[in-house]
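Justification of computing resources. Each target in the renewal requires a structure prediction run like the one illustrated here; the chain below, 198 residues long, is used simply to show the kind of job we budget for.
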Amino acid sequence: MDIEKTIENLKARHFSVSRFATKEDAARYLCGEIKNTTVGIGGCKTADQMGLYELLQDQGNEVFWHWRQQGWDVLEKENAAEVFISSANAISQDGQIINIDGRGNRLAGLVFGKKRVYIVAGTNKICSDFESAVYRARNTAAVQNVKRFDCKTPCKFDDKCHDCKSPDRKCNAMLVLWGPMMDMQKMEVVLIDEELGM
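Resulting structure tokens:
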């Protein structure tokens, strides 16, 4: 994989891109960018590893995250926030961003109603092409994610996607971002030179 080529291709697709050596550097940048507003965080191990929930609250933001707060209303507030933060399950070298979701709240948050979206991702998410990015999303990120749940999907036991029909299935939709959504002020990919997330 070529990180610089990936950045070039993301920019060609009109994403804003920033790159940082560490998660701490990236978190400082985001705290400078996001102040005194409402923030929603989708299911995001990378944001958890960065400590973004607490850090953004300290910047005077009202932060909604169902990993920290309970209730359906939290999911609604995440998606009504002015700023949304998520990660990527995979990023192809040609600049396509892939996410898989079970409930759909994270995918909805990425594509509609926000002024600004930040996609925080370790460079370990970058794949050589679209096919390998889809493979990573399904067989790495999704498999790791399902292990958080009390369920009996086949991938939980052998670490590979079966495109199962299990009633416990957590992978119900896949979103490919080819560019920022219309009318957004900014959709920025924040790349971090560390292995982060799932």
